[in-house]
Amino acid sequence: MITAIVLIDTEPARIPEIAAEVAEIPGVSEVYSVTGEVDLVAMVRVREHERLADVIADRVSKVEGVLRTQTYIAFRAYSSLDLDQAFDLGLGD
Which of 28, 34, 87, 88 could cross-link to 92 by cystine, CB 3.0-4.6 Å? Predict the structure, then answer.
């Protein structure tokens, strides 16, 4: 499983609507509204590296009101959650 953390700057008046639309994109597992320098943080989880472009560049970046994205690809997860097992149960893709 490949995980990307996507920082999203949006039009301020549309944060809830944009978050809801991004959350519906296949491959996006969570979207958080946050304080700080960006408006939203999306977690993208896909099985193949090539799918990142489909999800982030072709879908997230093109949501109306998204001004800019910055993507971080995770190398390793340090967590007590077994996310790969959750996706094997059919909760992903």
Answer: 87
Q: Is 2 helix (H, G, I), strand (E, B) or coil?
A: strand
For 12-39, write each residue's pLDDT tens digit. Answer: 999 999 999 999 999 999 999 999 999 9
Q: Are residues 46 and 52 in contact, defined by beta-carbon separation less than 8 angstroms?
A: yes
Pick 2-76's CATH classification: 3.30.70.920, 2.40.10.220, 3.40.50.620, 3.30.390.50.
Answer: 3.30.70.920
pLDDT tens string 50-76? 999 999 999 999 999 999 999 999 998
**3-class SS at 66?**
strand
